[in-house]
Amino acid sequence: MRYYALQVKTRSEEKYIRLFRATHPEIKVPVYFPKREIDIRRKGILKRTNSAVFPGYIFLEIEEEDSIYNYHWSFRRTDGFFRFLRSNQNISPLEGRDLELVLHFIRNAGPVAGRSKVYFDENSRIVVVDGPLKNLEGRIIKVDKRKGRAKIKLDLYDDSFLIDLGFEVIGSLDHH
């Protein structure tokens, strides 16, 4: 399998996928739009919402023997399309760390990355036991214990994103 990234209109990713599926039902390529569940407080009310892990990006899974060029015009003609990554002239599959990161969210986190289970060690460092933050500890740049969020830095091609992922504390070090 090869995985490709498409940049589409931000906050219209699901609309783009629906429109693509409606206008090209013959194309059965798996399309992924990893999301995360996060609690947002507005006017004192806590509300659980889903938002993009990679805002403005969706991912395609193409069989090895197949070519992205069999489909690229169909994706490009769908309203909301911006570009393939690296570029429309140089469509490149995800590789290395980019591929690992995208697969982490596609395979391990499910359609929506929920809350991770964590505890804090004796030096107040976060230790992830389970959930979408697992194996991303080195990417955590800030922890907000009060909000139950960890800010992580994600890199995709030459872009960097800062996103929050939720966590719940399951105790302290002496319980493990």
Strands ordered across the widest β-sheet: 9-8-12-11-10
Main sheet characteristics:
5 strands, mixed
Q: Please name the CATH topology.
A: Alpha-Beta Plaits
Order of helices and strands: EHEEEEHEHEEEEEE
- Top CATH class: Alpha Beta
- The coarse silhouette is elongated
Number of helices: 3
Tell me the name of the CATH homologous superfamily. Answer: NusG, N-terminal domain
Mean pLDDT: 86
Q: Tell me the domain tally.
A: 1
- Provide the structure class: alpha+beta
Rg measurement, Å: 18 Å
Low-confidence stretches: none
Brief sketch in words of this structure:
With 176 residues, the protein is an alpha+beta fold. The protein contains 3 helices and 12 strands, in the order βαββββαβαββββββ.
Keywords, separated by commas or semicolons:
176 residues; alpha+beta; Alpha-Beta Plaits; four-stranded antiparallel sheet; 3 helices
